[in-house]
């Protein structure tokens, strides 16, 4: 598994996705724990993050199982296109205005977990899509490994990541294109299209996979589609003062 190149490519994709889409989660953690006494604040952050990550692994596990059903990759791919395009549009509303802080440890932890559950749709779909692309039955191990690597980056380096995104907008653009890439590769590998797209024998006897040139080509088209649509919609929005 460790010598399998697609495994490490998927690991890098998962880390990039979680950093890109995890900034909101770092903000949620900070807002929910801000009223805790200083001695409990670190515990609140750690327990809240642990609970949120465990919940996300469970959600991604079920997402990976569902992606094997016909037409669900098509739906997931279209959702990823929308998430990638939305990422390129300027922020208008404060999505965190309803995050309630608490001075009680477990109340703050519960707030973090519930808020993360509500906000995890984009992460879950994107990470499941990246992991599914690695194949070879290591998807859940891949998800856990990628999330574990990205936890310290999000929790302790979130401010640096946010400043980096503010200073270099290209980082966000590349991240949005990555989501478009994953969406494109998901669409052409949906089981419902297996009889319509070129296939070749898979690594396991009796299985087939989409030919690489088509999968990579769909990824490139998906990335360019997100880039072009995002820039077009952003140019039509009124400039913020």
Strand % is under 5%
How many DSSP-defined strands? 2
Calculate the mean pLDDT score and round it: 75
Q: What would you call the shape?
A: globular
Which structural class should the secondary elements be placed in? mainly alpha
Strand order of the largest sheet: 1-2
Radius of gyration from the alpha-carbon trace, in angstroms? 19 Å
Keywords: Membrane, Transmembrane, Transmembrane helix
Subcellular location: Membrane
Transmembrane segments: 6-33, 45-64, 137-156, 168-193, 213-234
Membrane topology: Multi-pass membrane protein
Explain this structure to me?
- With 241 residues, the protein is mainly alpha-helical.
- It has one domain.
- It is 73% helix and 2% strand.
- It has helices at 5-21, 23-33, 38-66, 72-88, 105-119, 121-134, 139-167, 170-188, 212-236, and strands at residues 199-201, 208-210.
- A two-stranded antiparallel ribbon has the order 1-2.
- Strand 1 (199-201) and strand 2 form a beta hairpin.
- The model has no long low-confidence stretch (mean pLDDT 75).
């Amino acid at each position: 598994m460790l010598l399998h190149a697609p495994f490490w490519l998927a690991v890098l994709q998962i880390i990039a996705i979680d950093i890109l889409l995890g900034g909101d989660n770092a903000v949620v953690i900070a807002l929910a724990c801000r009223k805790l006494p200083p001695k409990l604040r670190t515990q609140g952050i750690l327990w809240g993050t642990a609970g949120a990550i465990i919940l996300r692994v469970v959600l991604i596990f079920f997402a990976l199982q569902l992606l094997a059903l016909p037409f669900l990759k098509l739906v997931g791919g279209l959702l990823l296109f929308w998430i990638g395009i939305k990422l390129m549009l300027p922020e208008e509303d404060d999505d965190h205005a309803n995050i309630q802080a608490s001075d009680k440890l477990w109340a703050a932890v519960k707030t973090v977990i519930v808020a993360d559950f509500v906000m995890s749709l984009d992460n879950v779909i994107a990470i499941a899509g990246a992991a599914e692309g690695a194949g070879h039955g290591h998807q859940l191990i891949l998800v856990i490994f990628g999330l574990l690597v990205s936890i310290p980056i999000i929790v302790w380096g979130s401010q640096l990541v946010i400043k980096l995104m503010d200073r270099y907008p290209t980082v966000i653009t590349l991240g949005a294109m990555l989501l478009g890439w994953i969406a494109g590769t998901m669409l052409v590998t949906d089981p419902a299209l297996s009889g319509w797209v070129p296939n070749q024998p898979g690594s396991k006897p009796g299985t087939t996979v989409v030919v690489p040139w088509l999968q990579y080509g769909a990824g490139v088209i998906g990335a360019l589609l997100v880039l072009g649509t995002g820039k077009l919609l952003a140019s039509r929005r009124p400039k913020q003062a």
